[in-house]
Amino acid sequence: MTSGLPRVAASTAPATLPPSLPGLDPAWSRLVTVAAWSADRNGGSDHATRTWHLLDTAGSLADLGVEPVGTLLCVHGNPTWSYLWRSVLRTSLAVAAAGGPAWRVVAVDQLDMGFSERTGVTRGLPQRVADLGALTDELGLAGPVVTLGHDWGGVVSLGWAVDHPELVVGVATCNTAVHQPVDAPIPAPLRLALRPQLLGRATVVTPAFLETTLAIAHPKLDRPVADAFRAPYRGAARRGGIGGFVADIPVDARHDSAPELARISSGVAALDVPALLLWGPRDPVFLERYLDDLAERLPHADVHRFEGAGHLLPEDADVAGTVLDWLGDRLPDGHAPAGAEGGLPSSGDTAPDASRPLWAALDDLRDSDEPALVEMAAPGGTRTITWRLLARRIDQVAAGLVDIGVRPGDRVSLLVTPGADLTAALYASIRIGATVVVADAGLGLRGLTRAVKGARPDWVIGALPGLAAARALGWPGRRIATLALPAPARAALRVEHTLASVARRGARRLAAGATLPDAPAPTTPAAVLFTSGSTGPAKGVVYTHGQLGAVRDVLAGQYGIGVGTGLVAGFAPFALLGPALGARSVAPDMDVTAPRTLTARAVAASVSAADATVVFLSPAALANVVATAPALTDADRSALARVRLFLSAGAPVSARLLAAATELMPNASAHTPYGMTEGLLMTDVDLDAVRAAASTVSAVGGVCVGRPARGVDVRIAPLSASGVPADTLTTDPDVTGEIVVAAPHVRDGYDRLWRTNRASRRGLTDPRGHRTGDVGHLDRDGQLWVEGRLQHVVTTPAGVVTPVGPEQRVEQVTGVGRVGVAGIGPVGTQQVVAVVETVPPVRRPALAPAALAAAVRAAAGVPVAAVLVVPVLPTDIRHNSKVDRARLSRWAATVLGGGRMTRP
Q1: What is the C-alpha separation between 314 and 88, in angstroms, rounded?
Q2: Do residues 380 and 239 share a domain?
Q3: DSSP run (H or E) holding 775
Q4: Which of 359, 406, 369, 365 is closest to 509 using CA atoms?
Q5: What angle do CA 753, 757, 761 make, to 5 degrees?
Q6: Is the pLDDT of residue 836 over 50?
Q7: What is the pLDDT of residue 593?
Q8: How far apart are CA 457 and CA 435, in angstroms?
Q9: In this structure, are 257 and 190 located in the same domain?
Q10: Angle, CA of 902, 534 and 304, to the nearest 5°
């Protein structure tokens, strides 16, 4: 298998200790000679003694006076070495020194790699697994052992785990693969490297393979770190192992190492120990299909995808911290799972009614000819769909989806704008036990690509723009179009079915006597809904059937929305939940990717078309509705006067904006609920309460979002001086901290984000609990005030500063529009910067004029180091409402540090 390698691949050299390298404690390095080898499974053997270089924290733990609870056995891949795991060694010792579980870390340099011996012997996968077994025998590892591998070191470590079930209590991997599907090609970079004419030249004669691997780190490696990875491979004579590893990749079943890979992959599926799968999605070699395969073989595994990270995952992301946290939770003493910690109390009398599935109202109204949906932007004008037609269409699509092969648990990505097609596809998919994936176009093409690829849908139901993006950007999933397409277009977009043809198949199936599958259990996943991406990459939020039903029920109970209610849904979740509530729903005519395109006349037209009494709009949409109010006709105003309830949420809504909205809807009660994708309704406040609270803004700060909704418990985790929320929770008034909620309608978890799930539930015993990432406080009347996001807290020498209060106070200054408050500098010594939109707007960013800067500083209520003016503040992608304070912080640090005064 190594015939493409030059003779230099067989070079020999003794093992050595590494030189002084950044981040590497010389006390960890040791050489271990293994005197006797056993034959590998292919009948090969290496009877010579071999010397390994490895990193080992045993001595450091002894110096600390602690006894390890077990051993973490780390195996690197190609072309790295044990240096890859230096942060794991360092972090494990820090945890032990702090009194946490003490894990001995052994990170090996595989033979012919790193600073281990160059053997001159071709070492295939069977031999490498046997090599590692011989080493651990020499070390006398007696267990418990957890393996941690990367790249092909992941395969070797898993092979060792399969062979040592008596020692292994857990396995963890970073970007590896144990199976190559026969219907999928070897990834392109490996295909190129495996070409006989390139193999030796790219991997051994030149350092091209090594340099390419180092170049795909995200972010780019510092020069000293990159040089440390190069250190054991200087000169072709030391790179034979790199070429040997590449040549040993089993490209098909005829490869010498293919049987061993098959053995390992089968053995992995039989492992019943805790497992952790860590992944960098930007890896050009280990594609996400390999993660899917591992997750299928280890269905109990915890999975975390580090969005933005790539192949060199331990360099790109905090693998060390994640692994040590996982060990502390799953194996705190080397064996038993972690116990529950104290935290949020449970309120067991608010469990969701599992007897009513999400589509119960559709079943109740299936014989009604009353309107269920009104489409304002339908081809040919406004279109009305009755409950009878909608229920029949959903049944037909559901039966048709079963007929084409959609199965319970399959993921169905919906790339459709709100309307009848989206409603039918969503409820049909949920009805048969599939999990819908909803990521709206407001994320932008890049964010939408990350979301869809991360969710790994089995099916995609899309309109033409979504299907075109899916094809161009390589999104996974078999394709179903919502519209008929010419044959060439269907072929180009890889469309297999249309929604209409699926419905026809379903109608034939039902006419022949077929029935729909039994309703899924309340604990079955029903949906993955993506967050806005306003505070980092959008996260997939998983809801079960029971939790979605609880969302429906809390909205119905809080606002009296039900059968017969006319609902204008200018906010996607409400557009989807309207049929579940039994409400007559209409989505106004607007560009869903740009909420500010909604006009007052479009809202009035929607109210008239659906005889609506309830209107729900995002703050950005509402602002433009108010701005376009002068265009309203008398008939428009009469229609808006019929509205009894107006809701706006998704970002803080000022009393001024709510009041302006009530001038358009004079008979409506204006409410601004507080919630998030993880829990759509947590608290509620009306305009009267907002006005009453306004007089206390200067003293307290923040946005009053009212009292908890039905079944919701709200607590505060106080902030430390460094901005870290405590594990203990309080309901004491005027204590600023992270807002923590619990309710039956809080999400089940985040999709493939174990670390994020852990952080959002830290210290909470109630499974319905959620750390929101928002900061705020409760007042003496039990009302919640939101003061900003946790990552936007400014940690000054005088204490923490939350941004919303200062922003509100500065917005009262004459000539000031919107304001963003951000921090610059190191944690604990940060300085406050105020970035201001002026009225009228400035033409270009600049330092604020002296008079304006003085007025801003006087109003802010906190020390302000600098005041900057900009034409427009950057906002989040989806809502166009939330100021992007993280971006402001980076920009302000750059321009105040002497950089160009560009727009943020």
Answers
A1: 9
A2: no
A3: strand 769-778
A4: 406
A5: 175
A6: yes
A7: 64
A8: 9
A9: yes
A10: 120
